[in-house]
């Protein structure tokens, strides 16, 4: 049975727990709900499907299935042409790209994101509490892995809420930001200083890393191959604990800590950890090898997401319908399309006439729209044959470690390592007097398209201006208020 079939079979069971703990009145728990919850945590299978339900919730459109991967968060980063005006037929695109946070359509989408994130966090907290209370249902080493994943997911969700709704950390780390929820119930909580929230995020990651010491990814790798292609020792692993890149495994949690440290401007710590992860024997470089050009260019099986390098990604059930609705070249009105300006992409990929001339493998998933002034991204389009990249939304990839080290050590060599594995020459071979910060920024624009990391990079760096998403547009000035979408009013009114 392939991974996609397995996912389809667990959706109903996994969502049962989400439904029970995500009802409209979170403070009410009926006796029948309590009985059902107790039944869910009375068997290992139900515990597993409950955790799967949380991953599936993260893959919904409100979170990493769309808004925090390739739509709203990328509109904030100016990844797309922003439309022809407020009256066109995609007002969300226009208003978000122009940081017009007062418009109802923008308020609504950030409310959807906020609600989706915190309802997921409450489900995670419920899972942690219930699993902690169980005795003898799951073997201790497996229980540790399940709890480790849950703590890491809680940290992941809070970090993105802090990065999105929190202050520009490098200038306002003591400013009140969001609340850190650790209990499985809705209770009024005061918002906390950004620095306090970040400390709690790192505490949760450290808990996760301790619990994930027995993660089979450390000894057996990711284990995405079909049963007949697994080693003898890999076949002995419970199938639930395979496909480790579809879960927040030990290595993904470690890179998440690097990300959190970088957000907190703790670059020395981040650099030390990133370097240790890349230098660890039989660690990330071995477990998550570079994707080859043969894999990228394999006709009808193109791996545009470089899946072997992804430490953590989720199942995005609506990936292909969303691509059809937002990116399909069949959309005739450019104002309705999430298209990128060809002139901007040419700058990003260092070409003067055509993207097709770039040897960068990442340029392969860009194709010219009906109007040559725009290009459409095929990174998340459906391949002809079912492969390991189907419905796979990357959230953490190993190249992030190289960019972190390039920044922390002011060293082009780490950028060059990624460039070489993307089909490019080193920076020094093609540019004189290259600026490191500019090259890192260009790498983020090429590497993380549709993965929601570019806006957070801009915000962390507190860049005074960023590239305009419109063709030939002048740089956009980025005042502080543009970097900080307002927390939904209904949350502030409580």
TrEMBL record:
Any Pfam family the entry gives: SusD-like_3
Every SusD-like N-terminal domain range: 43-215
SUPFAM superfamilies linked: TPR-like (SSF48452)
Protein name as catalogued: SusD-like N-terminal domain-containing protein
């Amino acid at each position: 049975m392939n991974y996609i079939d397995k996912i389809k079979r667990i959706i109903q069971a996994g969502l049962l727990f989400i439904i029970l703990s995500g009802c409209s009145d979170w403070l009410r728990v009926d006796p029948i709900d309590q009985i059902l919850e107790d039944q869910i945590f009375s068997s290992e299978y139900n515990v597993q499907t409950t955790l799967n339900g949380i991953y599936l919730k993260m893959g919904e459109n409100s979170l990493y299935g769309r808004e925090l991967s390739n739509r709203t968060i990328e509109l904030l980063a100016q990844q797309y042409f922003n439309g022809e005006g407020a009256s066109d037929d995609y007002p969300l695109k226009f208003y978000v790209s122009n940081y017009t946070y007062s418009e109802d359509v923008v308020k609504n989408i950030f409310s959807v994101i906020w609600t989706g994130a915190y309802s997921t966090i409450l489900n995670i907290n419920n899972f942690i509490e219930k699993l902690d209370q169980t005795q003898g249902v799951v073997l201790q080493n497996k229980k540790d892995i399940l709890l480790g994943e849950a703590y890491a997911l809680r940290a992941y969700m809070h970090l993105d809420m802090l990065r999105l709704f929190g202050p520009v950390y490098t200038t306002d780390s003591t400013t009140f930001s969001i609340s850190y929820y650790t209990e499985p119930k809705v209770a009024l909580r005061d918002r906390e200083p950004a620095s306090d929230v970040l400390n709690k995020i790192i505490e949760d990651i450290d808990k996760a890393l301790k619990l994930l010491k027995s993660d089979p990814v450390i000894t057996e790798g990711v284990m995405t191959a079909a049963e007949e292609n697994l080693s003898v020792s890999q076949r002995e692993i419970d199938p639930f604990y395979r496909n480790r890149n579809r879960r927040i495994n030990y290595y993904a949690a470690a890179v998440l800590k690097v990300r959190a440290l970088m957000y907190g401007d703790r670059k020395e710590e981040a650099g030390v950890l990133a370097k240790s992860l890349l230098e660890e024997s039989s660690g990330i470089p071995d477990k998550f090898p570079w994707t080859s050009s043969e894999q990228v260019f394999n006709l009808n099986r193109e791996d545009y997401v470089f899946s072997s390098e992804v430490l953590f990604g989720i199942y995005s059930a609506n990936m292909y319908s969303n691509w059809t609705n937002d990116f399909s070249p069949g959309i005739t009105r450019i104002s309705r399309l999430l298209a990128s300006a060809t002139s901007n992409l040419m700058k990003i990929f260092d070409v003067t006439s055509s993207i097709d001339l770039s040897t960068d493998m990442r340029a392969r998933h860009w194709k010219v729209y009906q109007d040559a002034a725009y290009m459409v991204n095929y990174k998340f389009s459906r391949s002809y044959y079912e492969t390991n990249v189907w419905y796979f939304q990357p959230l953490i990839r190993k190249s992030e470690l190289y960019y972190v080290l390039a920044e922390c050590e002011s060293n082009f060599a780490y950028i060059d390592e990624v460039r070489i594995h993307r089909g490019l020459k080193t920076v020094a071979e093609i540019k004189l007097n290259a600026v490191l910060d500019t090259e890192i920024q260009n790498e983020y624009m090429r590497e993380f398209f549709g993965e929601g990391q570019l806006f957070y990079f801009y915000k962390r760096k507190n860049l005074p201006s960023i590239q305009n998403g419109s063709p030939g547009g002048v740089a956009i000035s980025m005042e502080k208020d543009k970097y900080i979408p307002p927390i939904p009013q209904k949350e502030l009114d409580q």
